[in-house]
Fold this sequence. Notes:
By secondary structure, the protein is α+β, with helices and mostly antiparallel strands. The chain has 4 helices and 8 strands, in the order E-E-E-E-H-E-E-E-E-H-H-H.
Amino acid sequence: MTTPAKGQPVSLGDVFRIPLRKNRFAFARVINLKDGWDLAELYKETSSSPAPGFDFDLCTPLYPPFSFSIADIKKRKISLAGSTSKRPEYLGLIAFSRGISGRRSLIRINQYKSERPITDEEAVLIPEQEFYSLDGMIDRAKEILRASRTTAQWLAETLRDDLK
Length: 164
């Protein structure tokens, strides 16, 4: 596992386990650590073991990434399962919507200002910037697993749309 920065319980690339239901776990990789932008991406693979022996570098990431609380790791409400050497090269492409109906905007990871206003119709296609409690994060992980949209599918759609 990587060595966390001073004062941090996790590092980029660390993988933590998420309890789904009795005897079942999901796994998520830390892809961004920055004040207000602590993000992880869920893997498609799940296990009945909290230490599944996966090579996390070979696992399939799902879209969209979601926020998590470093405090939950510090308090040991969620725990680390391993790490991966891969770093996502597509972070700059990931965008979120924020705001309320009629006043939404697009924001990218690690930006604190909106990039541009967007319509409610556009916002439906973009994940919302949300921050979760532990229970909320677990519920969001379950939703992402059910949708099973891979990051590769999202990237292909994004790049196709950019080429139009």
